[in-house]
Write a structure and sequence with these properties.
Layout: H1 3-19, E1 22-27, H2 33-45, E2 48-52, H3 55-64, E3 79-83, H4 87-100, E4 106-112, E5 115-118, H5 119-126, H6 131-169, H7 183-192
């Protein structure tokens, strides 16, 4: 490989490291050409790229983009998986391929968010749900309290409407309520039972009822000395002695 070709490869690998969401380093020993092609196809569906580059060139590319933590995994046969899509999906694709092939593609480590990853960490990432599944769970967690609040508000409004309707049926709302009895009716009876003497003046003087007015306590036959009728009928004149 000429010097300019090596420089082009270094630039390309450095750009991929910098642009990728994550980079996984794997040991690909024992993998056939057909198996390598099959893995590339499966990783392509996960928006990831499987590449085999000389370790020395990858080291120089890592130095170029300050990814020195990746250099520790560049010993022996090493292939790099550059992930541009869902990191968990790409890691699970590699893990599933290893299971299907009886142990091929062993994780060495990786690089993500400016930090190195151990082989155990890459295995843990492979067990995570996909990004879409996590988004769905998050949306469900946010929507669940809102759904409960809407249901509670609906029940509260429905209960209030039923109470108002019951009050309307009983004539307690809407202007159909029976008017209250006037207070004057309750005070009329005691006033009627007060004695006539109370109608006198407030100074304690007795009021003269005038002539011809009998004592209210006396009956109609209580005046034997009233004297003869002013106009006696003929024949009614008393005999003289």
């Amino acid at each position: 490989m000429r010097r300019d070709e090596k420089a082009a490869v270094i630039e390309e690998v450095a750009a991929r490291i910098q642009e990728s969401e994550a980079v996984f380093a794997v040991d690909y020993r024992g993998m056939s050409v057909s198996q390598s092609a099959q893995l590339r196809e499966r990783l392509g569906e996960a928006d990831a790229r499987f590449s085999v580059v000389k370790n020395t060139l990858t080291e120089r590319a890592a130095d170029k983009v300050e990814a020195e933590g990746l250099k520790a995994y560049l010993e022996g046969p090493t292939a790099l998986t550059f992930v541009n899509g869902d990191v968990a999906v790409a890691a699970r694709t590699l893990s599933d391929f290893r299971r299907d092939t009886g142990g091929l593609v062993v994780f060495k480590g990786g690089w993500m968010n400016g930090s190195s990853l151990s082989a155990e960490q890459v295995d843990a990432i492979a067990k995570l749900p996909s990004r879409d599944v996590l988004y769905g769970r998050l949306v469900g967690m946010v929507a669940s309290p809102l759904t409960g609040l809407a249901s509670a508000m609906g029940g509260l409004i429905g209960g209030l409407a039923r109470q108002l309707q019951a009050m309307a049926d009983q004539g307690l709302v809407g202007g159909d309520a029976a008017p209250a009895a006037p207070a004057a009716d309750t005070a009329a009876a005691p006033a009627a039972e007060s004695p006539a003497a109370d109608d006198g003046g407030g100074d304690g003087e007795q009021v003269d009822a005038g002539p011809g007015v009998d004592d209210p306590d006396a009956g109609a036959a209580s005046s034997p000395d009233a004297g003869p009728h002013p106009d006696p009928a003929p024949g009614d004149t008393p005999a003289e002695s």
